[in-house]
Structure formats: C-alpha cells, structure tokens
Amino acid sequence: MAGNNKGKLFIISAPRGSGKTTLCNMLMKKYPSIRYSISYTTRKPRNNEVHGKDYFFTDKETFKAMTENNEFLEWAEVHGNFYGTSKIQIDNALESGTDIILDIDPQGAMQMKEKVTTATYIFITAPSFNELKSRLINRGTESDEHISLRMENAKKEVEFFKFYDYLIVNDATDVAFNQLESIYLAEKLRTTQYSNVLEFMNI
Amino acid sequence: MAGNNKGKLFIISAPRGSGKTTLCNMLMKKYPSIRYSISYTTRKPRNNEVHGKDYFFTDKETFKAMTENNEFLEWAEVHGNFYGTSKIQIDNALESGTDIILDIDPQGAMQMKEKVTTATYIFITAPSFNELKSRLINRGTESDEHISLRMENAKKEVEFFKFYDYLIVNDATDVAFNQLESIYLAEKLRTTQYSNVLEFMNI
C-alpha cells in the first residue's frame, strides 16, 4: 500500500496457558512479514538453538556494556542469566518494513512503554482462572507446584491489563485468532504510519 | 463477551466519492448492533423522511436553546439550516451497548475531538484525486461545476487526515471493507472497554 510500508511493533503479554504462542504462530504463518523479536542473552545455547535466529548469544561483559550504553529497550535477569531487547535491532527491522512481535512479561512491557509509544500493546488471557489452570493441568508438562506458581503469577499479571491497548479473552482459538488478526490489520492502518497526504493520494 | 458490552462511537469522514456510504452500509448489515447517529436539524422533512429515524426535526428556537445549553457535541449551519449531534442521544446509545457511526465532515470531526476522546476517528479516501474525480463523473449525478467544487473540498479535507486514528485508502471495495471491519473489531477489544479484571476473568 502506498506510503504505508513501515513495520509495526506489537508487544504481547499473556499468562502461561492463555494460548499466546498458538495465536502468534497462526498470525505469522498467515502474514510472513511478521516475525518475533530476537533477544540478546547471556545464557548458553541449547540444542539446535541458532545465533541470530533464536537469540543473539553474548557474554556478560558485552551485555553489561550494552546496558550501560542504553542499547536495550528492556532487559531482565532470570535465574542468573540476562535477557534484553536491542533498540537498534527493532528499529532496523521496522525501518525495513518488518512487523515485530515481542513476547514479554508485563514488567518488561512496562519498561518498553516508557520508551516506545508507537508500539501496540496486547494482553491475551484465558476466560477465567479456572480455565487457565485446567489448560496448564491438561498440558501435563508441569508439576503441581509449578502450576500453583503459574497461577500466582497469572493473578499478578492480569492486574496489568489496563496498561495495554487491547485485551483478547481467548475462549475459542478461531475467534481469538480473528481478534488478533483484526488488531494487526487495524494497527497497520494507523494514520501515524503515513507522513503526509502525498504519500497516499499518489500525487 | 463478558464485561465488554459498552457501545463504541466511530467518527467517519471522507471526501464525496470515496465510497464511505457503501462501506458503512456493508458494516451495519453485517453487525446489526451498529447504527448511524441521528442528527437534530431545523430543515423541513423531505419525502419519506421519518422523525427519530432520519433526523430529529426541530425548530430554530429549540435548536438555539440546545446550543446555549451545550447539548450538542458539534453543530453547523449549512445553507441556512442547522444540524447538530446531541450529546445525550449518543451517550444513551453507547450506554445501551449500541455502536454508533457518525458520518461528518472534518470540521465537525475536529469539534468532536475536543470533547470526545474515547471515540475512534476514521478517514476514508479514494487512492488518488484522479480516481476520486472519475468516480464523481461516473455517478452522472453532478454538474461539472459541482464536481470542481467537490474536488476543491476533497483537497482541503484530506489535509486533515493526521487528526484521525485510521486511514482507509479505498481502492477495492472488498479490501476496504475488510479494513473497516478490522478497525471495528479491534476497537471493540480496547482495554478501555473494560473497567476491571473481574469483568473478564469471571471471578
């Protein structure tokens, strides 16, 4: 579309079990111009993980220098490893017309929101805490203790929903996907995507 | 959807020939909970026009008193007749869960924007001024002089597009309708539609 070729950044948060990954994968399959943001991390690569695809792997000294140079939009320490979202990586992708999904927890999203006002903030959740718990149990991959912890986290996370632009209550995957797709398509039509009239009236 | 039952106001502007009426009618046909805002007017009813459906017909004294009581979100004088959008009519419709389309020119939209920050502002246009002119000529309903006037107006109107939230460049009706529908569905998912977490987590 004339003039509307800048990429758009989508910050998506959801409690574990909300169906976020499924929905995002469906969206990226339908719209190949969307991809996940790639984080920097100081943790070691696991089997099959590829530098520049799954993560940018780096060492603690480099990571620390990057934080001091304000090169990250947000960063966090998890179990002794550092993870961060590079500002220049995001900027370059958007400039080239790529749409980016940044899958991040509410604390990270709040850090982003102070710096990136042009991004779209989406919160996804299951229709109830009971449903969320059932889904986690049905996965069969988590211990009872882990599930209790996930539920505690979920209760804290949903309190942040007001800081997001959109809320998707994922009751049925096809409906929720339609909602996510609508948000994606609508956000690409924002007037902020255009710099002037001449861009779209083909003068 | 639990908690998300408030109506939403959509302010739509478009130069004549952009296809706005067709697109809005398609949207209202698919989503019967949407209806046009009904204006107050001091002009006399034409054939078949129904009070309370096409317009609220009123006299100049009543209209003047309403402007003095700040009962209008916006109003204008056109060819000696007054037209206005009643705040309480809009509020009541939204409160009852009806979504409202207000079809209005950019001057009116700018008046609205000062007062109504929760509305969604959409600008629709043809892909070029040449295309706009061709469409007006093809309608065969307007004189050359009128078409020149419409084109002058169109050039002024599109300059306002930055004040709107969304821009639809209507090149093909099916694509433009899909875009309008996406905006409608997305805006119904705004977190501002919910007052708290308890509303959507069914606690």
Provide a descriptive summary of the structure in words.
Two copies of one chain form a homodimer. Helix content of chain A is 41%, strand content 21%. The first copy, chain A, is of the alpha/beta class. Chain A has one domain: P-loop containing nucleotide triphosphate hydrolases (Rossmann fold, 3-Layer(aba) Sandwich). In chain A, helix 1 crosses helix 7 (173-187) and helix 5 (129-139) packs antiparallel against helix 6. The longest helix of chain A is centred in the last third of the chain and has 15 residues, at 144-158. Chain A is globular and about 60 Å long.
N- and C-termini, Cα separation of chain A: 14 Å
Ranges of chain A with pLDDT <50 over ≥5 residues?
none
Tell me roughly what share of residues is in helical segments of chain A.
40-55%
| Second rung of CATH, namely the architecture of chain A | 3-Layer(aba) Sandwich
Biggest protein-protein contact in the assembly: A-B, 36 and 35 residues
Please state how the strands of the largest beta sheet of chain A are arranged side by side.
Answer: 2-7-1-8-9
CATH superfamily of chain A: P-loop containing nucleotide triphosphate hydrolases
Provide the gyration radius of chain A in Å: 18 Å
Please tally the helical runs of chain A, counting DSSP H or I stretches of 4 or more residues: 8
| CATH class annotation of chain A | Alpha Beta
Question: What proportion of the residues of chain A form beta strands (DSSP E)?
Answer: 15-25%
Instruction: Please provide the count of β strands of chain A.
Output: 9
Task: Sketch the topology of chain A as an H/E string, one letter per element.
Answer: EHEEEHEEHEHEHHEHH
Briefly note the structural class of the backbone of chain A: alpha/beta
What's the number of structural domains of chain A? 1
**Given the C-alpha coordinates, what overall shape of chain A results?**
globular
Subunit arrangement of the protein: homodimer
CATH topology of chain A: the name is Rossmann fold
Average of the residue pLDDT scores of chain A: 92
In this structure, how is the largest beta sheet of chain A organized?
Answer: 5 strands, parallel
